[in-house]
Design goal:
TIM Barrel; 297 residues
């Protein structure tokens, strides 16, 4: 993996890249703003950029794209040193026209001419129509790469087999209790990069006090969060941890000066529960709720 131009850790170590299926390079470690309120987002992103992050992940549904854009504008960092991801929410018919309009709205809020990665946020509604519109956006160069989020294996394979452009990324829940190793193999076989949301499971299931993770952390002199991020990186999983604490931002970047051993990796593999720590996208009630939700304004 090559370092992403401009992205440096607190220890002045370049942040490595993964190369997506269209040749676009994406930092393996970025910064997410899910559940960060609009009023907090600008400062959080500004702090993250100052700490050395260059990949920022947002979404129309997070309702903080404008604040992300404001932080980018004030940072003075050249656009080509940044990797910006946003996401498309479920669109009513006609999905193709509404997707184009939603993308334009996201660009306007971000204050950008293009994004580096544009994702379908949920596998519901007319995502085929959404994907056709996104293929055009990609061909026009307004999104350097396009992909999906929360897509299970059957739906992403169906999308791949029946469209021209293969998704570059699938952003899915991935954490020590829901490791997705088999699914990562399927995605890799299709040329799709796995990206984690919820890497710390929001502390659920006692993640930060887990005996295996704390023991490995003590051995290496690192925090549980650093162990989890290092585990992701060694698995070639792109990860976007979220925090509004500048000290934790710096700590989360400081994961490139140690390596987990094979025994460490095996111990972490053994705590996989194989189930979501949040909710199941294939649960009928969750499908109904997500598929019916629309963004306001």
């Amino acid at each position: 993996m090559r370092a992403y131009r401009g992205g440096m850790t607190a220890a002045n170590t370049p942040i490595p890249n993964v190369t997506l299926n269209n040749g676009v390079e994406m930092p393996i470690l970025g910064f997410g703003v899910f559940q960060v309120g609009p009023e907090e987002t600008e400062k959080a992103v500004s702090d993250a950029l100052a700490a050395g992050y260059r990949s920022i992940d947002t979404a129309a549904a997070y309702q903080n794209e404008e604040a992300v854009g404001a932080a980018i504008a004030k940072s003075g960092i050249p656009r080509d040193e940044l990797f910006i991801t946003t996401k498309l929410w479920v669109q009513d018919a006609p999905a193709e026209a509404n997707t184009a309009n939603a993308f334009d709205d996201s660009l306007r809020k971000l204050g950008l001419d293009y994004v580096d990665l544009y994702l379908i946020h949920q596998p519901f509604g007319d995502y085929y129509g959404q994907w056709r519109a996104m293929e055009k956006i990609a061909r026009d160069g307004r999104a350097r790469a396009i992909g999906v989020s929360n897509f299970p294996a059957d739906r992403i394979l169906d999308l791949i087999l029946n469209n021209e452009i293969t998704p570059a990324v699938n952003q899915i829940e991935t954490n020590p209790f829901h490791q997705r190793a088999d699914y990562q193999g399927i995605l890799a076989g299709e040329g799709v990069q796995i990206e984690s949301w919820g890497p710390f499971a929001e502390g659920k299931n006692g993640l930060f006090t887990n005996e295996v993770l704390t023991g490995i952390g003590e051995k290496h002199g690192e925090s549980v969060a650093q162990v989890v991020l290092r585990w992701m990186i060694q698995r070639n999983v792109v990860v976007i941890p979220k925090t509004v604490n500048p000290d934790r931002m710096a700590q989360n970047l400081d994961v490139f000066d140690f390596a987990l051993t094979e025994d460490d990796m095996n111990q972490i593999a053994a705590i996989d529960e194989g189930s979501s720590q949040f909710f199941d996208h294939q649960d009928p009630d969750m499908v109904r709720w997500l598929a019916a939700r629309r963004l306001e304004g």
